[in-house]
Amino acid sequence: MIIGRHTDSKGRSTGERITAVQRAGAPLTEAEHAAATRLLDAMLDAAADQGVTLDDFDWVLDLPGGCRDVIRHNR
Description:
This protein is mainly alpha-helical and 75 residues long. It is 56% helix and 0% strand. Helix 1 crosses helix 2 and helix 2 (30-48) packs across helix 4 (63-73).
């Protein structure tokens, strides 16, 4: 599976978007970063069936941040 295969309108990959999320605490481990990126890619795969992109989500919520938080708190 290719990690970070979706991009936003500025050309940033999902992996880059996960990296850009700012949160207090320790930085993500490589495994957490990869898992959060895979989760974001999977969610965007499902959303694509409805014609929804990462840019569409950016209008209403921080999807990359949410994926990061779910992975961090699920470990």
